[in-house]
Amino acid sequence: MEARPVSAPAAQPPTGRTEIAGLPWVDDPGSVAPPDARALSKVFFDRLATLEEGTPEYAYARNTLIEMNMSLVRFSARRFRGRGPEEMEDILQVGTIGLIKAIDRFDLSREVEFSTFAVPYVVGEMKRFFRDTSWAVHVPRRLQELRVELAKARDHLTALLDAPPTVAELAAYLEVGEEEVIEGLVASNGYTAGSLDLPVGDDVADPAEAGRTYADTIGAWDPAMELMEDLHVLAPLVERLDARERLLLRMRFGQEMTQAAIGAELGYSQMHVSRLLSRTLAKLRAGLLADG
């Protein structure tokens, strides 16, 4: 997932003024120490509740709150240390989204510290980021969450029953339908994906097989499969033909007899056999088009 940058530029105060909308002007909100940010945040939240959304004053108060509390995002991101610099940048971006949601929903009347209220929002966005981007294929969130529940249930029941649980046992334990359990188990296959370029194995008896990749073992498209489909569709159409038409088809295509040989056996001229076959094939072709 490529997170879009979240920018929160603070408005500039009029020349010579040290406050805006009754709030102190903060030159560099991002450099405010956390203890000072906690105290200032209460002042800004109290004033933000009285300002009209969309006004420059509202934007200044909200953007200053975002920048002053970015330390909460950086603090929450520590649990994901070890990620690459690019991924860590995405984590900070989605964490900022969580911070903005917390600011928009915070209410001073709850008498809760903003940091206590905001961190679950920030961490929640980060976890959602990993949940949505860690799957090899796109899987609905409902099934992603079900996969986690199934894994926990399977471990618990395996320890309890001393054997892997059945689908019915998993469904009963989670109080969901068996079809939903099966759907969740199938969806779990989308969590990881192996490369087609991976080697088949090192312990290959035949030296000629050494160095083969998984892609080399996958069968190619078999044209006969398409022929089987055509024959399956043709079967009921052939049944509708009369006895002579079916006999002609069997002799021409089943026994691979020439038109002259068919004519000699049935007492027809080659031209007559040709016309009969053309008429029969046209009838089958029309039936195929009608069914399609």
UniProtKB/TrEMBL annotation:
The keyword Protein biosynthesis does not apply. Residues 1-24 are annotated as: Disordered. Residues 90-103 form the RNA polymerase sigma-70 domain. SUPFAM superfamilies: Sigma2 domain of RNA polymerase sigma factors, Sigma3 and sigma4 domains of RNA polymerase sigma factors. InterPro entries: RNA_pol_sigma-70_dom, RNA_pol_sigma-B/F/G, RNA_pol_sigma70, RNA_pol_sigma70_r2, RNA_pol_sigma70_r3, RNA_pol_sigma70_r4, RNA_pol_sigma_r2, RNA_pol_sigma_r3/r4-like. It holds the Pfam family Sigma70_r4. Keywords: DNA-binding, Sigma factor, Transcription, Transcription regulation. The keyword DNA-binding applies. CDD domains: Sigma70_r4. This is SigB/SigF/SigG family RNA polymerase sigma factor. It comes from Actinacidiphila polyblastidii. The lineage of its organism: Bacteria, Bacillati, Actinomycetota, Actinomycetes, Kitasatosporales.
